Amino acid sequence: MGKKITVVGGGLAGTEAAWQLAQRGFAVRLYEMRPVRHTPAHVTDRLAELVCSNSMGSALPDRALGMLKNEMLALGSFVIRMAFKHALPAGQALAVGREEFAEEITDVISSHPQIELVREEVTAIPGGPTILATGPLTSDALTRSVQSLTGPYLYFYDAIAPIVTAESIDTSIAFRRNRWDKTGSAGAAEGDYFNCPLNQAEYEAFVAALLAAPKIELSDADTELERYFEGCMPIEELARRGKNTLAFGPMRPVGLRDPRTEQRPYAVVQLRQDNVAGALYNLVGFQTNVKWGAQAEILRLIPGLRNAEFVRLGQMHRNTFINSPTLLRATFQFKERDDLFFAGQITGTEGYVGSAMGGLLAGINMARLLANKPLMQMPRASMSGALIHYITHAAPDNFQPMKANMGLLPALPKRIRNKQQRYMAYADKAKQDLDSYLTHMEFAPVT
Ligand SMILES: Cc1cc2nc3c(=O)[nH]c(=O)nc-3n(C[C@H](O)[C@H](O)[C@H](O)COP(=O)(O)OP(=O)(O)OC[C@H]3O[C@@H](n4cnc5c(N)ncnc54)[C@H](O)[C@@H]3O)c2cc1C
């Protein structure tokens, strides 16, 4: 059926996209550079290798990743079907036998009559119908080629800051104010930032805990990243430079008074709104590479964050991603070229399931483009639609990868206080909207 479609990257997104196209009768050439060229994180030559944890998160239908997986199954996801096939006992989460999972995906893809698997590094963006799914560890040569297309809009972050849900911030301690009492961006008198005030003893206890905390080990290839720290320094590195470095840096209190005392605190942790709905806040300047268990514990020492619910913890690794809000359509097409799709973590959809979701939709939409059918745009109230909306509409200046989470969903018409009931209502709404959308689009999944 027509000319071959190129898919670059045999990870979670690339294998999903290739399979979707092949099952619809299209001929696909899938490039995977391993084992000819390695990445700093993959350790095998298998396709769809899970680089770190073997968990694909919650399987519950009213949790973000559970919703996302169910939506993907409704669309006929190959990767999620394989993950459930190779599930391990893990309570309410989907843990995957990583070797069997990757082995079977490799077998299916490499023996598919419609797929030609080429073990070669692609060094420039190919012409013709192309899906680029090379992930956060895209090779250097291809990164340069992507950059020539995206201009300055390609990011290479070493360290990222944690994000908490707004409802888990203790507002009896954290106060809303901008520095120097400047009015908020929407003219709101209360200011844009939440500020968590620390007295000297609290600050010193926080710094001591940070200095004692274990760091995530970097692979040898990634230790070179430590050279890039100056512009994006992790808080533990700042703490190591001197006991007050943080108090003069990201935790500086200048221009802020605690409304309870009208005094300037000794130090302050600022939180900035992270999503359009105001449901998520990130800790400003709090990039960190402290191990995740210890990290959550230490961050909860901050007054106002004792019960913080983290939707993302800080981490540091090579992470190449494009500025999707300026470059991508909600169909995963590059704005400037109809037959070029980006998919997976390179678009800023963080995590295994979110990455596979991008491959699923890019594959389906490439098939629809070539068949002259209208392209799919997931409903805004579905988890996939909410995540795609985020990556295509977030503020471009501060854009960073995001994983599926309930805070991305549009508010329900009626406020439901009980969290369990609220999540269930979100999940019901998502399912209803998706079902009617798939009927409207006359969508039939391939099996
Ligand atoms: C170190 C690290 C740990 C992570 N841990 C987790 C975790 O525990 N849980 C989680 O949910 N997410 C995690 N992620 C985030 C993300 O979910 C994974 O990176 C996920 O694998 C992304 O899927 P992908 O398909 O976009 O990219 P990948 O799965 O990385 O697939 C991209 C593929 O493209 C290939 N490739 C790259 N460049 C080229 C080229 N020029 N030519 C040909 N092939 C190329 C690569 O070899 C790779 O196989 C982690 C990311 C990193 C970097």
CATH architecture of the largest domain: 3-Layer(bba) Sandwich
Morphology call: globular
**Strand proportion:** 5-15%
Number of DSSP-assigned strands: 19
Provide a count of the helices.
13
Mean pLDDT: 91
Structural class: alpha+beta
Strand order of the largest sheet: 6-2-1-7-19-18
Major sheet: size, sense and barrel closure?
A: 6 strands, mixed
CA(first)-CA(last) distance: 19 Å
Structural account:
- With about 450 residues, this protein is of the alpha+beta class.
- The protein has two domains: about 5-155 and about 320-440, FAD/NAD(P)-binding domain, CATH 3.50.50; about 160-315, Elongation Factor Tu (Ef-tu), domain 3 (Beta Barrel), CATH 2.40.30.
- It contains 13 helices and 19 strands.
- The chain has helices spanning about 10-25, 65-75, 80-85, 100-110, 140-150, 200-210, 235-240, 245-250, 290-300, 325, 350-370, 385-395, 420-440, and strands spanning about 5-10, 30, 55-60, 85-90, 95, 115-120, 130, 155, 160, 165, 175, 195-200, 265-275, 280-285, 310, 315, 320, 335, 335-340.
- The chain has a six-stranded mixed β-sheet, covered by helices on one side.
- Strand 4 (about 85-90) and strand 5 form a beta hairpin.
- Helix 1 (about 10-25) packs parallel to helix 11.
- The longest helix has 22 residues, at about 420-440.
- It starts with a strand and ends in a 7-residue tail after the last helix.
- Flavin-adenine dinucleotide (FAD) binds near residues 41, 52 and 142.
